[in-house]
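Hey all, sorry for the wall of text incoming. These are the three entities for the joint prediction.
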Amino acid sequence: MSDVTPRLAVQKTYKLYIGGRFPRSESGRSYQVSDATGRFLANAAMASRKDVRDAVVAARKAGPAWSGASAYNRGQVLYRVAEVLEGRRGQFVDEVVAAEGLSVGTATSLVAAVVDRWVWYAGWADKLAQVVGSSNPVAGPYFDFTVPEPTGVVGVVAPQSSSLLGLVSVLAPVIVTGNTAVLLASERRPLPAISLAEVLATSDVPAGVVNVLTGRTAELTPWLAAHMDVNALDLCGLTDTALAHAAEEAAADNLKRVLRPSTADPDGRAEPDWSAEPGLERMTAFIEHKTVWHPVGI
Amino acid sequence: MPHYAGAVPLLTEPTLPLDRVTDVVSTDASLRRFLHGLPGVDQVGAEARAAMLSTRSIKTAAKQFAIDLAISIIDLTTLEGQDTPGKVRTLCAKAQRPDPSDASVPAVAAVCVYPDLVAVAKAATGPSGVKVASVATAFPSGRASRAVKLADTADAVAAGADEIDMVIDRGAFLVGRYRAVLEDIVAVKQACGTARLKVILEVGELATYDNVRRASWLAMLAGADFIKTSTGKVQPAATLPVTQVMLEAVRDFRAATGRMVGVKPAGGIRTAKDAIRHLVLVNETAGEEWLDPRWFRIGASTLLNDLLMQRQRMTTGRYAGPDYFTVD
Amino acid sequence: MKFEYAPAPESRAIVDIKSSYGLFVGGEFVDPVDGHRFKTVNPATEEVLAEVSAAGPRDVDAAVQAARGAYTRTWQRMRGAERAKYLYRIARIMQERARELAVLESIDNGKPIRESRDVDVPLAAAHFFYYAGWADKLGYALSGREPRPLGVAGQVIPWNFPLLMLAWKVAPALAAGNTVVLKPAETTPLSALLFAEICQQADLPPGVVNIITGAGDTGRALVEHDGVDKVAFTGSTEVGKQIARSVAGSGKKVTLELGGKAANVVFDDAPIDQAVEGIVDGIFFNQGHVCCAGSRLLVQESVAEDVLSRLKYRLTTLRVGDPLDKNTDVGAINSAAQLERIRELSAVGEAEGAQRWSPPCELPERGYWFPPTVFTGVSQAHRIAREEIFGPVLSVLTFRTPAEAVDKANNSPYGLSAGVWTDKGSRILWMAQRLRAGVVWANTFNRFDPGSPFGGYQESGYGREGGRHGLEAYLQ
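and here's what came out:
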């Protein structure tokens, strides 16, 4: 006797990623995510302000160990992420095809670029200080040097369009220098971000270093922007100029460092060209330079 | 307006009473522990402080005061192989009456000579109040047995020296044989009888301010009445930062033990400006109590004439010329 | 023997203060169009020094237009090597007129002549020398980017180091090819106006540097002006936040150098005499009107009594009085308003239970004066341990372990500077890594150099001034 019933697929539940765990939103809310053609893909958790709060606590808690790890160690951990990504390329191709409506061919090369981008940033972990740090020849008997240090907890509004390449292009530069991140995934294309979180959770990235929230950008951004324990904001994915303006104003309350959305387009809708080599800007936006002086004598 | 608590002594209670000093000096190990437990000296910070104090602008009445004070604390010195009784008598005359044309110029504190010329100096100074100091202990190297050093000292004391300027065993100090250095000083102090003992650290051979501070304390623990920078035969000798470190040591030693010790920079102080800078240092580091020939001396030879020239400039209002002052 | 230092006043004859000043716009001194006049006084005597113009909105606009014109027509197009020579020229003139600048600064600001002569003016000239050399080497300043100037920089500076802050702002901006509109502080406009004369003397093309005097309104109009591409501000955190809000959404590039409440951490193995000097330098340098002042002394409990007794002894030798006297260590408080704030916070310190102490010192009858003051028995919860007093007031706290020192030092929304005193090398580096501050002075304090980047973490602002990093703030 043979069973002719076709196999029923196991559907994936997409949850939040906070402090190394995958909880549902504390609010119990979720929202429907569709593919590029409008077909239902999955339900995603709709994070609340309390999830933002919890994610910031987790990110703050993870900060000392992550920033205190050696740059070599951070580089190793991030390279490990690339290794795990490489093994899951197929899954990400499917998700990008679904999210962004790309052809399989285009998506395949895009995912390859994602892995390569991650490797590129991983390599910076133990080199950036040599490029942006300095030994300063002061007019006196002092040894004086400047080193970059992470800014702290960085809130990242991920790009709305480029759900994976754009995502890693804003996330990797934040954490490679030792910051921890609270990331708001693309509102309409959040699924690759959660899959990336699953990669991070299984590749030695300590819990809390990256926290991923899905939900309404307009609802969550103001909480993130006003949070007094967040040190910096990357507003890359804020397509709404008024919202971006308000976020920047709120950020002033504790003088967060703000990386503004690209203003190349008058509607602020232009996303950077993610295929280009990034440069240092997204890393240097979230570091502090510390200068240390010491006398030279006997 | 704020309430003033008044001037503050450095420490209210001695933390190192004399019975504890006995413990501290009892072994090489305990001495080492104590000396190496003293706070370090940061070279750059110490020199910056001395440089800042040397910018003090001492003018008019303050300058007149400082010049006369500087004259009165000089140990007028001749320590040459070619010294003779004649040279020493001339020096003593100058010590008592630095400017023959002006009786208001004070006498210097002391003359400083080799032991074999003490008797000559003593006779020449007579009852003038100018003290006779003698270097001893195989000056300037100090490389002799303790017996020789003590004999050298006894010789000078017997000839009438009021003050003895001894040198420490820098070799022993640099290899950490602190007890040996201390015992030398204790023995010489005993040989001095009532003569006051100045202990020369020879800072130019100690190389670091940390060593200067430790050697200062070592000398004071051993009973020195004065700590003195240099023999004048080794460079660098008396610099402002070195004097400052030693002034901090006597200040702290007094606070810790209640006993006051003097400081004598010697070697390299040649101009009135240098001398006044040292007085400012005393004033703002150890305090005004040390501004007294009993507690602060400057060992010098050519300094006196520069002070006299500056003094005459202040009284006459015109610049003086060296031909109007005696060469020795 | 009592050694009294006779008065040693620096002569005022070298400076020629005019009775009134216009605004420096487009290379000329002009009368304000819609502004008004205000007086600047000598804080040591309350004597009125001069009448100065407060620029109104139209005056600000004229200055920004002048800067824009000079930017597009001249400065941006000029070869870097030529710009460099202008900056070298300015540096040299500042050195030649150093005594004049120092005396003027002390008269207008109240700071001791020893500091204006030995610190402010030489460092200001050094900044021009340093950045002059960058003007034709910009291609080496940024990694992987083609350097381009930003355009017109609107710069607002404080009253604590008027000329030095001007140099920190103007020198890198001009080297990078920008033109500037600078607003000096309301209470200390005179050295900036003398600097305007120096620009004329150097034949700097008109409009490259514009100096508009005035108060907060003028500053706000400048910062918010649409024609300004870059805002650089040094001052209070409160105003810094207002600026950050006002430029939101504008795309203007901003650097902010704001307040601080620096911890100066003294361990039991510190070089104690130098540490005491560092504490004194940290909080009484420039009357404590220093954003990076070491206003919180954190001393290890095992040596707290000893350090305090040495500190108090040392403070009895501080010479408070006439800023022009060459032996003065602590001068006048810059303004009546600042004096009021210092008094108020000190009163709060007492009311909250901290013990207040000052050395005996006679303060002049006229002018704005406050004695060097130390508060002991201060806890983290006291306002004097948290708020910037910006005056000669030290709050003393204690700690037991290195970790506790770090926790207490970092327990502040500020993060500008910190000090560490210990003879143990590895501990210095351990502390330096953990202190959340843009500048860490180990076994020293309050050192500045044009080549050394300076700036804060957190609410002490963002961006760096000094060094290659300072140049980056003026390039895109």
